[in-house]
Amino acid sequence: MTAAPPLPAGAVLVWGGAGHAKMLRPTLARLGRPVAAVVERDASRAAALPFPGARWLADEAAVRAWVADTGAAAAGVAFTLAIGGHNGAERCRLEDLLVGLGLQPLTLVHDRAWVADTAALAPGCQILPMAAVGEEAVLGRQCIVNTNASVDHECRLGEGVHVMPGATLAGCVTVGDHATIGSNATILPRVTIGAGCMVGAGAVVTHDLPPGTTAVGVPARPLPAPSAAAAPPSAQGA
């Protein structure tokens, strides 16, 4: 068997080959981090990955084989997860998988974003163009502050939170693990958003939301939880 070619210095594995990966591309280029491989389960995208020359990996088994064949862990390969949407739990699961294989999460801050010196970003966070993270804000692992979003002073974000484009978190907001704040939504000061919540686009949240709530509108109101009868078969254990 032919030995795998050596990996370039500073090599990165990107998980996801769609639009979010394209948004991370300028920051990776500015940092001089060559993308050695892209994980993309949709085979139709394999011929047009956002990183020309990168190796296409179709699934977790392919990732494990690539790491073993290339010596990626010993070479110090890092990874970033180009998975947006309401997928914070999946980002955290994949981080656990890749760290277990010896790779390291890469924190990315676009050069046109602003992060206060007193803010704290856990490994794997992504701060996209024109986003702002204010004084003494604390972000857990695998948080995304997307384009033109704002996380103000003393906010506390759990792991896997996604603040979508244009959303605003006022001061002292707390957001639980794996919650998503929709595009152009506003969370008023000192409000707590529970774990796993989904705040709809354009909503204005004026009061705390319990875990697992989906809230929409102005002011935001919780949607009724779907009944078991209305859930798809996969959600009923069929």
From TrEMBL:
GO MF terms held by the record: acyltransferase activity
Alphabetical list of InterPro entries matching this protein: AcTrfase_PglD-like, Hexapep, Trans_hexapeptide_repeat, Trimer_LpxA-like_sf
Keyword annotations of the record: Acyltransferase, Transferase
Site (Increases basicity of active site His): 154
Entry annotation: catalytic residues: 153 (proton acceptor)
Keyword Ribonucleoprotein: no
Chain positions recorded as acetyl-CoA binding sites: 162
Keyword Ribonucleoprotein: no
Family: Belongs to the transferase hexapeptide repeat family.
NCBIfam families recorded: NeuD_NnaD
Listed name of the protein: Sugar O-acyltransferase, sialic acid O-acetyltransferase NeuD family
Provenance organism: Caenispirillum bisanense
Lineage: Bacteria, Pseudomonadati, Pseudomonadota, Alphaproteobacteria, Rhodospirillales
